[in-house]
Amino acid sequence: MTLTFTLTAALAVLSLPWWPMLPPIWVCIMTVIVFVVGWKRRWWWLAGSALGLTWAVLSANLYQADVIHVISHQEDTTISGTVGTLFSAKTGAQAIIFDVDKINQTRLPPFRSARVRVYWQSPPYPKQGERWQLVVTFKPPYGRLNEAGFDAEKYYVARRVHAKARLKEATRLTEQVSWRQQLLDTLSPALSPLAFGPHLLALSLGEREWLTPAHWDTLTHSGLAHLMAISGLHIGLAYGIGWQIGRWARVFLPERRLFLWLPLYVAMGVASLYAALAGFALPTQRALIALMLVSISKRLGARISPLNLLQLTLLLVLLRDPFAGFSMSFWLSFAAVGALCMAHYSLTHAPSDGRIQTRPWLRPIKQLIGIQLILLVGMLPLQLGLFAGISAAATPINLVAVPWVGMVTVPLVFVGLLSESLSLSWVADWVWGGANASLQPVMALADLAADTWLPAPVTSAGWAISAMVLAWGLYGWRWHRLKAVMLVLVAAVVAWRDPKPVNWQIDVLDVGHGLAVLISKNHRAVLYDTGNRWQVGGIAQAVIAPILTHRQIRQLDGLILSHGDSDHDGGATFMSDTYSPQWRRASERRAGYQACVAGERWRWQGLTFSVLWPPAQKARADNDDSCVIRVSGDGRSLLLTGDIEASGEADLLASLTDKRALNSDIILVPHHGSASSSSSAFIRTVDPVWAVASTGLLNPWQLPSPEVKLAYQNAGITWLDTAANGQVRWQGVDSGWQLTRWRQDRSDYWYRQMFKRRPVYLDADL
Asked: Torsion-angle region of residue 703: left (phi > 0), alpha (psi -120 to 50) or beta?
């Protein structure tokens, strides 16, 4: 009963991220009735499913109501609340989470909540725990949507963020900061000078903002990323340390019944404190709940199997946070625990040869190796699906690094934190130095292991699942129980079909206000424009690089910059340094770039690139100097227009002796759909089937212009824009162009539909 009921309830809640639409809240009445019927008839699968659906529908509807309530407020809204994000001077400008309790001086009712994300660019910076009064403009919590890269909208749901806010004014109301912020302020001077200070901060507070992209590459490619955070593993280590402290303390205490369970109480106290240091992040919640269940069963003299512990923990985590399934850390955390349960089953059911073990010390070593191998197989699908690769050295390096960090580094971190709390700075400095030295061999191994990274296509994750099931079946099941698994594998192999062959492919990436177009063929690519850049990072790092990694493209064949505006060439340096394009072209004079001017023509992978504008290179290319290129091949064509405006369009038309040179199937709408571009003569001459504008939702320039959009639609042209459609892809297949819109065709889930809602005050302006 327990397994069926809890598992079906958990699966029902876990299905929430993939619902195509959100049922109305009155559906909960029906699910409650179904639950009662299932419970009375002991149809545990039905009762569990109904309970899970009730909780999911109720939670999602309340969240949606809060989102609509927040974003419906007028411009220049005054909000008061508490800062929820740790601030470190080392990170500077950053996005903060702000927990609102008053909107326009009116306190929120108890059933309402409001959490907003505010980008804070300049001093004075807020610190966690402080109260501030802000004047902001709300926006829906939408994000860019592409085939790979950070999914901001999932992140917002997982963190229960109800709106984004543009900051206009800020007034600090109180200077009282949280204890975690106080500890961070104390730790920062001690850890900043250390070589592995960012790693120690991650182990101390779960704060990973100091870790650079280079750090993450090394940790990910070596298989050690899970060690540099307060994870479930470290909560378990804290529990073990607390247990030993309790045992030692009990020796000096009188033999009373009160102190019999002291080790257990101390263990839970230390584990809870360490989880609190990480702000009770999702992996720590999972570990803490599991340890609490184990502790309760020990206290009651009961036993709980690893499988029951896993599914009870899963249900309790989801009951506490029904949106946990939106978080990648949830899946990684429970996949690891599931693999450990599989390891427990396999090792405890392993057949014995009946011989007496002459070397009993080998048994724990064999078990440790077995656990690491099972973790490798169990985590393989997620590893391939999320990171598109695997470290060949992950298993051997974890055999060394996990015990070392657990037995040496983490205890030193505990002593360091205790010393800082007691203001024993001289002790803390010595301890932090030791902890830093303890990480030196680990990170040296990580640097060596990073070169063993094996990239793999994301589609291999499906085959990894099949391999995992087969390996488990071969190891732990009898052959007659394996028939069903074998049938499933055979059916998967038979049903597998290679995707339709693609002649060439065009991807207009969702980069907000800016532009990046990827043209690919035969696993090679040319990039037209690189999107915008920020103070730290930019579109090239956040969007383009993850997509190229996803496709296993390590070098660009070509890079074209339409003109010199930062929203088009912001990532040019990063792309050149990271992907070493074989050739580069621009309409302005740049070192290392060939001219992109009218009359230039070249072939690439069977495609023809014909430059139609501008007539000459400029020292600084403006909008009307944008490099306009027609790409054609296999009877299909694309017109890339940059930010050319109406005057430039007229000059371009006048320069052509044969106007058919502009005719194309697809046009990139000039200047993001601005009213200063897309003249009627230009639209008629190009005569496209599709027009796509690269825009950001609710951008301050209100692009694309409604008049421009209407002009294309009145001409019988299908209108698309990245703000509404996300990444837009055309694939040349035998039957013609195959169109894919990421929001509508790949990821049209209920929360994305909700985030596309516009605040009512903006609708009133149209």
From this structure: beta
Q: Name every residue whose Cβ is closer than 8 Å to that of residue 645 and which is 6 or more positions away in sequence.
A: 623, 624, 670, 671, 674, 676, 677
- Token match 């049938």: residue? 487
Handedness of CA 183, 188, 190, 191 (dihedral sign): positive
- Alpha carbon dihedral 618, 619, 623, 628, in 10-degree steps, equals 40
Would you state the structure tokens that stand for residue 236, as one six-digit string?
Answer: 């378990």
pLDDT, one tens digit per residue, over 239-271 is 888 888 888 888 777 777 767 788 888 999 998
**Residue with the two structure tokens 């397994």:** 3
Torsion of CA 285, 288, 293, 297, to 10 degrees: 180
In sequence order, the 6+-apart residues with CB closer than 8 A to the CB of 658 are: none
Q: How far apart are CA 752 and CA 17, in angstroms?
A: 10
Question: Once rounded to an integer, what is the mean pLDDT over residues 707-715?
Answer: 95
Copy the structure tokens of residue 428. 């803390």
pLDDT digits over 264-315, tens only? 889 999 989 988 888 888 888 888 888 888 888 888 877 877 778 888 888 9
Name the DSSP class of 676. Answer: T
The single-letter code of the amino acid at 502 is V
Q: What is the residue whose two structure tokens read 């990694």?
A: 549
How does DSSP assign 699-724, residue by residue?
Answer: -TT-PSPHHHHHHHHHTTPEEEEHHH
Q: 30-33, long-range: CB within 8 Å, 24+ apart, which pairs?
A: 31/57
Residue type at position 368: L
d(CA 586, CA 562): 6
Q: How far is CA 185 from CA 128, 169, 190, 201, 209, in A?
A: 11, 25, 10, 11, 14
CA distance 208 to 554: 27
Q: Report yes or no: 249 and 266 within 8 Å, Cβ to Cβ.
A: yes
Q: Which amino acid is at 539?
A: I
Closest CA to 553 of 579, 531, 527, 572: 579
Answer yes or no: are the C-beta atoms of 691 and 718 closer than 8 Å.
Answer: yes
